[in-house]
Design brief:
It is a single chain. By secondary structure, the chain is α+β, with helices and mostly antiparallel strands. It has a single domain, classed as Aminopeptidase, CATH 3.40.630.30. The chain is built from 4 helices and 5 strands, in the order βααβββαβα. The protein has helices at about 15-25, 35-45, 95-110, 125-130, and strands at about 5-10, 50-55, 60-70, 75-85, 115. The chain has a 5-stranded mixed sheet, sandwiched between helices. Strand 4, helix 3 (about 95-110) and strand 5 (about 115) form a beta-alpha-beta unit. The longest helix is centred in the middle third of the chain and has 15 residues, at about 95-110. It is globular and about 45 Å long. The termini are far apart.
C-alpha cells in the first residue's frame, strides 16, 4: 500500500460530520449531513461503530461501520454494515485494511464469524470480497414496509 494510515473511531456528531462525504460515495441517497449524524447517533446506540482510516493529517480516507451481534445462525459475530473508501484512493489497499482491522476486532471479541452483505448489482464489490477471503453463504432478502408489504399467506 505504501501509505501511512492511522485508524480511529468516530464517536460523536463532531466526528461523524467529517465522514459524511466518504459515506455519501457509498450511499448516494444520503444528502443531508445533519440527518446522517442523527442516523449514526441512533445506530451508535444499537452498538454500531465507525472506524476511520485516516491520513497523517487526519483526513478520512476510508470507513468501516460495523456492529457486534448474536443470533442462532452465527452465534456471536461482527456484521460489516458499511465499507467505503474515497473514490480517488480506491485500489490502494485501504479497502482491504479496514475489514482486516474489523476482523481483528472480531477475533479479540471471540466472535465466530465476520459477516456482510453486498448488492447483487455490485460485481466489482463481490470480486473484492472474494479476493479477500469472503464466501457466499446465503441470500439477503428485503421487503419494503413503507407502503404496507404484502405479508405472508395465511
Amino acid at each position: 500500500m505504501g501509505m501511512n494510515l492511522t485508524f480511529r473511531y468516530l464517536k460523536s456528531p463532531d466526528d461523524w460530520i467529517h465522514a459524511f462525504d466518504v459515506v455519501k460515495e457509498l450511499r448516494p441517497h444520503l444528502t443531508d449531513p445533519e440527518a446522517f449524524c442523527a442516523q449514526l447517533h441512533r445506530q451508535h446506540e444499537e452498538n454500531y461503530r465507525l472506524l476511520a482510516a485516516c491520513s497523517v493529517e487526519w483526513t478520512i480516507l476510508g470507513l468501516a461501520g460495523y456492529r457486534a451481534q448474536t443470533n442462532t445462525l452465527y452465534g456471536r459475530f461482527i456484521y460489516l454494515d458499511d465499507l467505503a473508501v474515497t473514490s480517488r484512493l480506491q485500489r490502494t489497499g485501504i479497502g482491504a485494511e479496514l475489514p482486516n482491522k474489523v476482523r481483528d476486532i472480531a477475533r479479540q471479541a471471540r466472535c465466530a464469524h465476520f459477516v456482510l452483505d453486498t448488492g447483487l448489482h455490485l460485481p466489482l464489490a463481490q470480486r473484492f470480497y472474494f479476493r479477500n477471503g469472503m464466501l457466499v453463504n446465503g441470500m439477503h432478502l428485503v421487503e419494503s414496509l413503507a407502503h404496507g408489504g404484502s405479508g405472508f399467506a395465511q
